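CO-FOLDING WORKSHEET

Operator: S.A.
Ligand of interest: adenosine-5'-diphosphate
Run index: 197
Mode: holo prediction, single chain
Checklist:
[x] sequence pasted
[x] SMILES validated
[ ] output reviewed
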Amino acid sequence: MLITLEGIDGSGKSTLYEGLKTRLADLHPLFTREPGSPYLGDAVRRAIAADGDPMVEAALFVADHAVHLAEVVRPALADGRIVISDRYSDSRFAYQEVSLAGVHPDPHGWLEAVHAGWSVRPDMTILLVLPVAVAMSRLAGRCEQEHFERQEFLEAVQKNYLARAAEDPARFVLVDADRDAETILDFVEKSIRAAVR
Ligand SMILES: Nc1ncnc2c1ncn2[C@@H]1O[C@H](COP(=O)(O)OP(=O)(O)O)[C@@H](O)[C@H]1O
Ligand SMILES: Cc1cn([C@H]2C[C@H](O)[C@@H](COP(=O)(O)OP(=O)(O)O)O2)c(=O)[nH]c1=O
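OUTPUT RECEIVED:
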């Protein structure tokens, strides 16, 4: 079973991801993330930090996904393991549809085409939703800010996430991320346990 965690920067994904490692230890899930695949992840992170050409960045996110699938996700699923990924393809549809607007003639069509027929669809996607202003205030304390972390950009990204969730309600679990971290962890742990039972 493939479970993905999604949400805008500052939504509390990393906090949730770390908390689930303890809460779900008895299920021995494989915890993984995008970007960050073996041998390509560092290049992708350098491209994000450089804030360069959006198409180069998008192609690197897709390449990172290909390596992630081939080297990490598919082997673990073949072994019958639960895979929990901090970000996955919905990040691409949510973020690159915004970053590629005006750069590529059809960002959505391109993203559909590069994933169709070979990518693995998540069984369940946990989407953390919160007011962008709250996410921004959480991020204000970070020393290194990524170029995606701007109010209007994240508003558009969250809109894309919500549109995807509305199109595929059976896969998405929407979580009110403007609550305390322990309450969120309790809710997500219960949702995952119910799904894997
Ligand atoms: N539920 C929460 N309530 C308040 N602050 C939170 C919550 N979850 C995370 N934070 C804090 O917000 C900041 C961003 O959280 P993080 O988990 O790194 O978000 P993300 O991985 O989605 O960018 C961190 O300083 C973290 O401690
Ligand atoms: C996986 C992925 C991430 N991103 C963005 C989201 C983040 O702003 C940035 C780096 O991801 P990451 O370091 O995982 O950020 P976070 O801690 O917020 O999860 O890359 C995309 O734009 N497209 C993608 O396909």
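REVIEW:
The first helix runs from residue 13 to 23.
The radius of gyration is 16 Å.
[x] output reviewed
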